[in-house]
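B., you asked whether I could sanity-check this one before it goes into the benchmark set. Here's the sequence:
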Amino acid sequence: MTMHKHKKILITAAAAVIVLAAAATAWFMIHRAESLSEGAKRFALKEVCLEKNGIAAITQQIRTATEVPDSAYIAYFEAWLTKDGFVENFKMTLDAFDDQGNYTQTYTYNYNDSKHEIVCGSSVTTILPTYEQPNSALDYIDAQIKTLPLASQMQLLDFEHFTLVFQPDIQLEAGTPVIEADSSGQFPLLSYEDYQQGLGGVSDGSSSVIISLTDGTGATGQQIRYLCQAADEESLSGNPETTMQSDYRIQNGELYLTGDCGETWISAGLSEAQLQETLETYHMGNILAQDSFYADGSGTYMFFYGKIPTLKITEDSGSTWREITFDREMPRTVTRRIIRFLDDENGYAALGTDWSMGTGEALFLYWTHDGGQTWEELELPTVDGQMLGGIAFADTQIGILTVERVSAEDPWLVTYYTEDGGKNFETLELPWEDIPEEVQYLSRVDSLTYEDGQYVLIMGQGLSGNQKVKFTSQSVESGWQFEENYIGTVHTVG
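And here's what the prediction gave me:
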């Protein structure tokens, strides 16, 4: 097993909190809200000129039939328009929050004009934590739509149909045509040919607030994109306080990776069949295994794929790739995969299987100290009914391992430490009793660093929650103290 020397890869706390809950059993759990009248019902939308009346006029009318949350953020909005800008049909998804800014539930509204019917529903996202997003607030997007010269612009287009589409945090490839407002805040009118030539402006490649006027045929169809002034620039992708440094997304059967908080994305170069095999291997739906991918923010990306763990690496932002196959014989499929590097020479990978009564489980650690040219295999400690959760090293010697129980009655982790690079592990005791009640459980180690003479350990909840807990100690083996709990960044775009 060999690979060539790669560029320096920096392990950061932001990258280390990339976690995916291997024990997740569903994407959504549906809850019925007593105040929301769900299901299909008779509802005739009165005339709404979107340019003049905005989304506010739609929500006001919906309130006559069912509930619309007061504090609402648009997760998706699409309206089918007549040639003069009146709404015929619409789809709208809203995320709701309470007075303290805590997510409560998601509302959906689908209106069919031919049936004079609106279908309403509510759901609670249990896997992907949801945050207030100023750039998708209902009032803000309503105000932006009212600045668009929709009716006049549609007269200049020969689209067969017209839809207006908004979804948060769109990142267009640099150079993509957009229409920007002039110094007075007015959006110019352009023919489609002039728009395509970039006479209204072009994207700089960063995440933006985009409202699109389309021909209704989807992402590959004709459309004009309006670039709106963000309500809060810092809340857009690219902000490490709210967005993960290293993350992934799956779109149209293709895997994309980012190493700069979503500012740029590269294709992982997998075929649709390879991606599907990888997802099926993890048994978690349309999500990748925790820590099975990594990016350093400087053009180096790596990730495991395939039923047999194959590490794919690029050092030039995807221009070229190379692969290393970890084909050790295992008693079961390898569903737990971790890849991290400490510097340009030293990196580690960990592999683990599910547990069964017949075969048990297998956990292995791999080290490279020559930039990946050679790898040393070490067997991790196994206890019947425990599977690889997470592993993090502060340097080439000091590390912490967490394992998941098959029967998880205890909300806290089974934790081990090593002082010899993983050759030997000992049980680690942490002050679980000091953790506040709002943190009901922890599922894995996120990161271990050595800062100002002490070790800093971050534990998290995977994708099932965004609570993080910080411990500190001057020694890895004992003396750990609870420092704080806080809300951290997690994977949300996959």
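One thing to flag: The longest helix spans residues 50-62. Otherwise nothing jumped out at me.
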